[in-house]
Amino acid sequence: MKYDYSSFNERNFLEDFNKLSFIYINDASDRNYDKFLSDVALLVNKNLPSKLITKRELKFKSKPWISYKIQKMIKPRDRNLRKFARDESENNLVVYKIYWETCR
Can you name the residues that pair with 50 across neighbouring β-strands? Predict the structure, then answer.
């Protein structure tokens, strides 16, 4: 999941944050720390709605060395490979090699 910042309003977030009660922070215990984390998580979820990312986005996020340009070239490259596999003409091979070189 990732957060959708398009509807983020900093003023509303800060107002909600200031409304939180921090009385329990003075007592340093695990239960109070967990309460604080859950309050902040609720605040973030309220002001920054999350949206699911697709499997494709997740796959490319795990491979930061693949640039956006390369991501856009992979689909046509694969399409031209399938085209060449169906019809092994010289023209299809040349087109596939051009896309293959671009994706390197």
Answer: 3
Q: Nearest to residue 84, comparing CAs of 73, 76, 92?
A: 92
Residue-averaged pLDDT of the chain: 83
Q: At what angle do helices 68-86 and 90-103 cross, to 10 degrees?
A: 160
Entry pTM: 0.44
Is there a contact between 86 and 73 (Cβ–Cβ < 8 Å)? Answer: no
> Closest Cα partner for 49 from 8, 18, 79, 99?
8
**Angle in degrees, 0-180, between the axes of helices 10-19 and 30-47, rounded to the nearest 10:** 150
Partners of 3 in the β-ladder? 50
User: What is the torsion angle, in degrees rounded to the nearest 10, for the CA atoms of residue 16, residue 22, residue 23 and residue 28?
Assistant: 150
